[in-house]
Amino acid sequence: MNFPDRGDVDALIDPQPLPDFARVQYEPETAAVDDPSAAARTELDRLDFDGLEPGATVAVAVGSRGIHRIDDIVETVVADIRDRGFEPVVVPAMGSHGGATPEGQREVLESLGITESRLDAPIDARMDTDQVDTVTVGDTEFPVHVSTAAQEADAVVVVNRVKPHTNYSGRIESGLMKMTVVGLGKQHGAKAFHSTAIKEGYVETLEAALPVVESALPLVGGVALVENFHEETAHVEAIPAGSFTDREPALLEQAYDEMATLPVDDIDLLVVDELGKDVSGAGMDTNVIGRYRVLNAPDPDEPSIKLLYARGLTEATKGNGNGIGLADITRQAALDQLDLQKTYANALTSGSTAKAKLPLVAPDDEFAIRTALSALGGYDPDTVRIVWIQTTQDLSTLHVSEPLVDELPAAAEVTDLESLAFSDGTASFTRE
Predict the structure, then answer these.
(1) What span, in angstroms and rounded, lies between the C-alpha atoms of 420 and 430?
(2) For the chain, how many helices (H) and strands (E)?
(3) Measured between alpha carbons, how far is 68 from 52 in angstroms, rounded to an integer?
(4) Does domain 36-258 have CATH number 3.30.565.10?
(5) 105, 196, 213, 352: which could form a disulfide with 98 (CB 3.0–4.6 Å)?
(6) Parallel, antiparallel, or unpaired for β 329-331 and 360-362?
(7) Residue 125 backbone dihedrals phi, psi, to 5 degrees
């Protein structure tokens, strides 16, 4: 498909005067764990490895998220398991991510710094599953699939972050339960789960499937991580198998209290430099931008964002642009980064097809901003409310248009006044 270049569209929308911008450092007070790896090693003592013979294989299940220091934490978990006399093996627990291929899932782990050479342990990225049972959720029959590689191990330890989900809200959202049921279900299990969850409810589907998965797996437990506003580790806790359902709601409540949010709620235009699966399952954290766009899930009331311009993809997402459909406008440079096979594999598995739709494609930043300002209607540079961020995971340094400066919270400090300029259509901020 050929998209218009500047010469095709330049005359359609007149240039608009730009507002002045302020560079803002946003630093809400929060707590962090000084050494997450050391905390993980200490917490592993809470899990029961006593029934294992020396040399037993322990699968360490790892997902695709850009969790703070996930490479260090996984390295420590693997080393601790080896120190206990067992043989660790890493099993990707990321459903269909990485294009639903073993090579793609290895590539995702490598982008997170998790490799066989670093860990001195094998990575078993097979996509094979076994259907271990069928459960009934509401009026729906749900075939439960479990990773063959995980079943072949003598024990399984799951490592994941507990956080608000990007498609729904409930007492259980993202965390150890979801990784165990969905991540270790690989593509077949993830597809069956999402198909059922969209109709019958995510929490209900998780709670129905978890006992079946626990019966099929030699699950020892998991290492749960909670992050603060700055996406740093705020809490590390090992949870024994059988206790996920009881313990995760309290950790989720802590995650909600600690989560990153934009400094203002009423926004005309939000510009996001990069989206990606390493940032959020939805490419952009829907709890930050206030958009779910999934069937049977109402969008949050806040923040209220009229238009969203997504400029590109992270390197670590490896072309998986799932979430670009949350934007209203993107640019040609973002399309050039897209790997549609990976994006579609993710969207078709999750059932959330809206997130893979293409928004309006502008040839460059300059025309994208011009388009957005015109689309706002009654645009006035003296009142327009623009927020510009790197990713929804990094909200510490951002830009806001000058009309928003007086509304910033006390934790937000203006560090510079800057102007938005374009060079060959590409945007950059320059100090005034």
Answers:
(1) 7
(2) 14, 16
(3) 30
(4) no
(5) 105
(6) parallel
(7) -100, 20
pLDDT at 372 over 70: yes
- The CA-to-CA distance between both ends of the chain, in Å, stands at 40
Give the per-residue pLDDT at 303.
86
Q: Where in the chain is the domain with CATH 3.40.50.11440?
A: 36-258
Q: Distance of CA 91 to CAs 44, 127, 151, 154, 409, Å?
A: 18, 10, 11, 13, 43
The per-residue pLDDT for range 58-78, each reduced to its tens digit, is 999 999 888 999 999 999 999
Say whether pTM exceeds 0.90. no
pLDDT of residue 295: 67
Between β-strands 412-423 and 304-310, what pairing exists: parallel, antiparallel or unpaired? unpaired
SS3 120: coil
Q: Per-residue pLDDT for 131 more than 80? A: yes
Q: Which two tokens stand for residue 138?
A: 């509401």
Task: Please tell me the distance from the alpha carbon of residue 288 to that of residue 302, in angstroms, as a whole number.
Answer: 9
Q: What residue type is assigned to position 412 of the chain? A: A
The pLDDT tens digits of the residues spanning 316-371 come to: 899 999 999 999 999 999 999 999 999 998 888 887 888 999 999 999 999 999 99
**Can you say whether residue 120 is alpha, beta or left, with left for phi > 0 and alpha for psi between -120 and 50 degrees?**
left
Report helix, strand or coil for 136. Answer: strand
Return the closest-CA partner of residue 229 out of 84, 51, 15, 29.
29
Interatomic CA distance for residues 88 and 56, integer angstroms: 8
Cis bond before residue 409 (omega within 30° of 0): no
Please answer whether residues 388 and 427 qualify as being in contact, where contact means their C-beta atoms are separated by less than 8 angstroms.
no
What pLDDT sits at residue 109?
Answer: 96
Residue 161: closest CA among 231, 96, 111: 231
- Contact present, 147 and 184 (Cβ < 8 Å): yes
Q: How far apart are CA 154 and CA 96, in angstroms?
A: 24
**Helix runs in 91-147, H state only:** 102-111, 116-119
Identify the band that residue 114 occupies on the pLDDT scale cut at 50, 70 and 90: very high
Residues shown for the chain: 432
Euclidean distance between CA atoms 342 and 321, whole angstroms: 8
What region does 55 belong to: left with phi over 0, alpha with psi -120 to 50, or beta? left
pLDDT of residue 66: 82
Q: What is the pLDDT of residues 228-258, one digit of tens each?
A: 988 899 999 999 999 999 999 999 999 999 8
* pLDDT value for 296: 61
Which residue in 6, 2, 3, 1 sits closest to 371, CA to CA?
A: 6
The runs of H, that is alpha helices, within 278-319 are 286-289
